[in-house]
UniProtKB/TrEMBL annotation:
SMART domains: HTH_GNTR, UTRA. Pfam families: GntR (PF00392), UTRA (PF07702). It comes from the Bacteria. The keyword Transcription regulation applies. The lineage of its organism: Bacteria, Bacillati, Bacillota, Bacilli, Bacillales. The gene is treR. Signal peptide: none annotated. This is Trehalose operon repressor. Gene3D superfamilies: Chorismate lyase-like, Winged helix-like DNA-binding domain superfamily/Winged helix DNA-binding domain. Residues 2-70 form the HTH gntR-type domain. SUPFAM superfamilies: Chorismate lyase-like, Winged helix' DNA-binding domain. Keywords: DNA-binding, Transcription, Transcription regulation. InterPro entries: Bact_HTH_transcr_reg, Chorismate_lyase_/UTRA_dom_sf, TreR, Tscrpt_reg_HTH_GntR, UTRA, WH-like_DNA-bd_sf, WH_DNA-bd_sf. It comes from Alkalihalobacterium chitinilyticum.
């Protein structure tokens, strides 16, 4: 049997998803929710904590719980965030399917992107990211085997970055990114739910270790209606 706070969380999350509590509105106060669900303040606080952790609300001191737009997800442009880290904020709404995993000899294009030598081999990983039962991201990862040995399909289903940092003991340091808007390819349409969409957002990542070794080239292909690509900038006057 589910705990009462989990049931309250599930009921409130459904109401948010269905628009009963609009984006940027306030949820009822803790006192109101205590009365509404005939439960304790501690139970309500646990339910609100789950809502916050899963990206449904933002608690603001002095105001209450502000409803967030659960139909769009923030991707920081300047950060290096794995999908698993993003998925943790969404609870059970996110999943990954590995569609292709192979060790390949890079063609001329991949050699150029990865600055690979003739003898270098590359891991090719094709993963589809599903959120709320919609396939909305196609990640095409290419990793130099000499930096990321013994990669497996199971690791790719979980987290490649977690494997690199925790198992291999390497430090992922920085990335160069290119963002473009393109027409979907046949591959995009095969793997993603793109009915009615004529463009996708493509984020190309060139990812480096802390010794400045380029080890990964990625094309992350996003359905445009589900994401905000956000950054923080500070004006500097000389």
């Amino acid at each position: 049997m589910k705990n009462k706070y989990v049931k309250i969380y599930e009921e409130l999350s459904i109401k948010i998803e269905e628009g009963d509590y609009p984006v940027n509105s306030l949820l009822p106060s803790e006192n109101e929710l205590v009365d509404l669900y005939a439960t304790s303040r501690e139970t309500i606080r646990k339910a609100l904590k789950l809502l916050s952790e899963h990206g449904y609300i933002q608690k603001v001191q002095g105001k209450g719980s502000i409803v967030l737009d659960v139909q769009k997800f923030n991707f920081p442009i300047s950060g290096l965030v794995s999908f698993k880290e993003l998925a943790k904020k969404m609870g059970g709404r996110a999943s990954t399917t590995v569609e292709d995993f192979a060790e390949i000899i890079p063609d001329a294009f991949l050699k150029e992107q990865l600055k690979a030598a003739d003898e270098d081999k590359v891991w090719k990983v094709l993963r589809v990211r599903e959120i709320s039962k919609e396939k909305i991201i196609l990640d095409k990862d290419y990793l130099l085997e000499k930096y990321v040995p013994n990669l497996t399909r199971s690791i790719c289903e979980n987290s490649i970055y977690e494997y690199i940092e925790n198992d291999l003991g390497l430090t992922i340091s920085f990335a160069k990114k290119e963002i473009t808007v393109e027409e979907p390819t046949e591959e995009d349409r095969r793997y993603l739910d793109l009915d009615g969409f004529v463009n996708i957002v493509v984020v190309k990542n060139f990812v480096y270790l802390d010794d400045a070794s380029l080890f990964q080239y990625t094309e992350s292909r996003h359905r445009p209606d589900k994401f905000r690509f956000v950054d923080f900038a500070r004006r500097k006057i000389n």
